[in-house]
Specification:
This protein is an alpha/beta fold. It folds into two domains: 117 residues, Response regulator (Rossmann fold, 3-Layer(aba) Sandwich); 111 residues, Orthogonal Bundle (Arc Repressor Mutant, subunit A). It has nine helices and eleven strands. Helix 2 packs parallel to helix 3. The radius of gyration is 20 Å and the shape is elongated. The two termini are 17 Å apart.
Length: 258
């Protein structure tokens, strides 16, 4: 997931960037409102973390101009001003959520996860497909109940695919949302990671959790297959999924191709 942090306090910006990167997010930083607005309008982000007291343009102005420009990326507003009127102004200017400073890091992460769920048609706390389950909060994954040993990048890619389950995601889109904006390597790095990820998550005789759409990209399976059971009777009682995918959300940010 790609996050834009607009924060002029250097220590706070560095702490947010370091912490979010450690959680598997791809982070861009702007230290003033003008640069923040430009980055937010020129690039595709999944979430924007926006401070209020900024040089150039304050957070209220940035949020308002984003909405006027038709940019609906979820905005989490941060501010040391915790008055009710300040809170109301932040939401009225276009922010989706509001977090007063100081805040605890676990609470910040919970707000970001909540905003991510709001942008999609379905809002599962756990993401699943074909016996594969991912807990975005704990950054852990299992296949048929067995834990998987995944890197932070593999978790980020898997989460992005599962959040857009049943829809084709191109290599360019994965690079935009799961790699750093300064990455200047070859798109083949996505193929290498997907090959490694598949070796970890796929099981012989089980439905593929991730499918390749030749010439287009990858998609996570819509089939919610129950774990393999040793008892045919218990397997027969297991509910079957309809296999239908929810429609892709219209609130998803537009793609930007480099």
């Amino acid at each position: 997931m790609r996050v834009l942090v607009v924060e002029d306090e250097r220590d706070t910006a560095e702490a947010l960037s370091w912490g979010l990167t450690a959680e598997g997010y791809v982070v861009d930083v702007a230290d003033n409102g003008v640069d923040g607005l430009w980055k937010a309008t020129e690039n595709a982000y999944d979430i924007i973390v926006l401070d209020v007291m900024l040089p150039g343009l304050d957070g209220y102005q940035v949020a308002r101009r984003l909405r006027e420009a038709g940019r609906w990326t979820p905005v989490l507003m941060l501010t040391a001003m915790d008055d009710d009127l300040d809170h109301a102004e932040g939401l009225d200017s276009g922010a989706d959520d509001y977090l007063p400073k100081p805040f605890s890091y676990p609470v910040l992460l919970a707000h970001l996860r909540s905003l991510t769920r709001r942008t999609l048609g379905a809002r599962p706390a756990l993401l699943a497909a074909a016996g594969l389950a991912l807990d975005p909060a704990g950054r852990t994954a299992t296949r048929d109940g067995a834990p998987l040993d995944l890197t932070s990048r593999e978790v980020a890619v898997l989460e992005y695919l599962l959040r857009h389950k049943g829809h084709v995601v191109s290599k360019t889109e994965l690079l935009e949302h799961c790699w750093d904006v300064n990455f200047d390597g070859e798109p083949a790095v996505v193929e290498v990671l997907m090959h490694r990820l598949r070796r970890k998550i796929e099981r012989p005789g089980r439905p593929a959790a991730i499918q390749t759409v030749r010439g287009e990209g990858y998609k996570a399976s819509c089939v919610l297959t129950p774990p393999r059971s040793s008892s045919p009777r218990s397997a027969a009682r297991s509910p079957r999924s309809s296999g239908r995918c929810p429609p892709r959300s219209s609130t998803r940010p537009p793609r930007h191709r480099c």
